[in-house]
Amino acid sequence: MDYQAVLERIAQDVAPLVGGGTPAEYIPALAAVDPRHFGMAIADLDGRVHGVGDWERPFSTQSVTKVFALALALSLGGDSLWEHVGREPSGNPFNSLVQLEYENGIPRNPFINAGALVVTDRLLTLTGDASSEVLEFLRQESGNPELAFDPEVAESESAHGDRNAALAHFMASYGNIANPVPALLDHYFWQCSIEMNCADLARAARFLARHGLRADGSRLLTRSEAKQINAVMLTCGTYDAAGEFAYRVGLPGKSGVGGGIVAVVPGRCTLCVWSPGLDGQGNSVAGVAALDRFTTLTGLSVF
User: Fold this and answer.
1) What is the rounded CA–CA span in Å between residue 137 and residue 135?
2) What are φ and ψ of residue 41, in 5° steps?
3) 251-264 CB burial, b ≥16 within 10 A, e <16
4) Rounded Cα–Cα distance for residues 117 and 113 (Å)
5) φ and ψ at 131, to 5 degrees?
6) Model confidence over 178-219: pLDDT tens digits?
7) Hey, how many other C-beta atoms are within 10 angstroms of the C-beta on 50?
8) What pLDDT, in 10s, does the model give residues 34-91?
């Protein structure tokens, strides 16, 4: 398949949408990003990458990193993780406190903020340095040793992180957090601040298209675990718009409020699209449209 031609067609088709939506206003470092950026990359199973637009421009990955933290926590700690976090769509905003009270401090899934905090807590227990573990993994899988945290973003999130602190303390009151909340929040904010571009992220996510195999051929996850992560991405990866995303795109995907979305075509390729303008659910307006066009033009989806 001529992925480059597909990408160029997509860029033309979604151009009227680029600049639509609003960057994440509650994190000042993200609110300042020009919403008129658009980039998209496709990586095949061997790591060859095609791109269009701003595909080599770094951006704040934010919640996209939750996929990689989840994979590491599962690979190191196994299925016991699922005793502390569920696998069901939330139907509520990504930073909601409401469900936690009804469900005794067990988050609905690992991709809402409460669930991601549980995963980071587990990874911190397993490794002693959760944020650095995620960064090093991303460096290895992307082949880019220059990947780094963005201190400005991390500090901005920390200064405006009261809701995440509330989530963590609430779960700790139910015994669902093992580490001191301040340490956990620090690792969570630094993890979310990692900067990458579309090519980096498309390459880094290939283990999900390769049924759990890392870039060097070693096994990170069993085939079953890779399938499970892809399934949770499909049903929970785009906040409370996961049903609409599955309907339009038909691929496992994980979005972040930096405007990035990673998507997986199992056995074929991985994609990353970035455009900072977000819709009301926190997903990139142009990014979702671009992935919709990709599956329409290529016929590649899980359905």
Assistant:
1) 5
2) -140, 150
3) bbbbbbbbbbbbbb
4) 6
5) -65, -45
6) 999 999 999 999 999 999 999 999 999 999 999 999 999 999
7) 21
8) 999 999 999 999 999 999 999 999 999 999 999 999 999 999 999 999 999 999 997 6
Reference 275, options 289, 263, 265; nearest CA is 289
Helix (H, G, I), strand (E, B) or coil at 270: strand
Q: Which two tokens stand for residue 117?
A: 């905090």
**Interatomic CA distance for residues 283 and 246, integer angstroms:** 13
The span from the CA of 271 to the CA of 231, in Å, is 16
Give CA separation, 126 vs 103, 119, 173, 263, 295, in Å: 25, 11, 21, 27, 38
Integer CA distances (angstroms), 293 to 136, 242, 258, 274, 287, in order: 33, 17, 21, 14, 10
What is the rounded distance in angstroms from the CA atom of residue 149 to the CA atom of residue 243? 32
- How far apart CA 69 and CA 75 sit, in angstroms, is 10
Alpha-carbon distance 151 to 295, whole Å? 36
Alpha-carbon distance of 147 to 32, in angstroms, equals 21
Token reading at 48: 């060859």
Nearest to 60 by CA among 84, 30, 32, 40: 30
Strands 253-255 and 260-265: what pairing? antiparallel
Query: What stretches of the chain show up as alpha helix (H) in DSSP?
Result: 3-14, 28-31, 65-77, 98-102, 113-127, 130-142, 151-159, 162-173, 181-192, 198-204, 206-209, 223-236, 242-248, 285-298
- Using one digit for the tens of pLDDT, what is the confidence trace for 146-157? 999 999 999 999
DSSP characters for 3-15?
Answer: HHHHHHHHHHHHG
CA 205 to chain CA centroid, Å, is 10
> What's the pTM?
0.96
What's the burial of 97, exposed, middle or buried (CB within 10 Å: 0-12/13-18/19+)?
middle
